[in-house]
Amino acid sequence: DGGITQSPKYLFRKEGQNVTLSCEQNLNHDAMYWYRQDPGQGLRLIYYSQIVNDFQKGDIAEGYSVSREKKESFPLTVTSAQKNPTAFYLCASSTVTNPVGYGYTFGSGTRLTVV
Amino acid sequence: AQKITQTQPGMFVQEKEAVTLDCTYDTSDPSYGLFWYKQPSSGEMIFLIYQGSYDQQNATEGRYSLNFQKARKSANLVISASQLGDSAMYFCAMREGIGNTGFQKLVFGTGTRLLVSP
Q1: From the list B45, B50, B104, which residue is nearest A106 (CB)?
Q2: Would you state the torsion angle of the CA atoms of residues B23, B28, B30, B32, taken in this order, to the nearest 10 degrees?
């Protein structure tokens, strides 16, 4: 079955560490996204990528970095510069071929906690 | 400026009753799309229903319907015959004009937590 796989499901980070969240899709979607979810704030866009080797900052990109070397993969690195990284992170993808009405397909999320 | 507003942080409904979750939006783009997603406690986001700005009829998908009032810029989700499994967070989202690349970016509201009681 096609879908998006995020790993790990739970991640613990020590102060000052960089951590990388994995996102892989087998839907042949061109566009991929990373959102951060905090209680009471909905989903906020961190980074997005329309095609391989290209990505743009979203609304809250500071302290995060991404890469898009393969169509299927869009990993997110939470750097030590991100002062409050504890949150739920969702990866999503979308088709650019006849996209009307289809929105996003989401992964099951990674819950990151700073210890 | 807030583009998607969900004013109900929490809603309660009894099993088998209908419930309406509110969503208002703000855009100057004549071409846009509105989505509703369900997020159970497990965390994944499940697509429920879509309404395009040019669609003449309100969208329906099984027990879900979207009460689209374009002039009022509202896109309320109606769940009929609520079930215990409907207890979850519900998010309204908007996509502005897609353009010729097919790329779309969604903006989400803050969500409404629905609790269905027996």
Answers
A1: B45
A2: -40
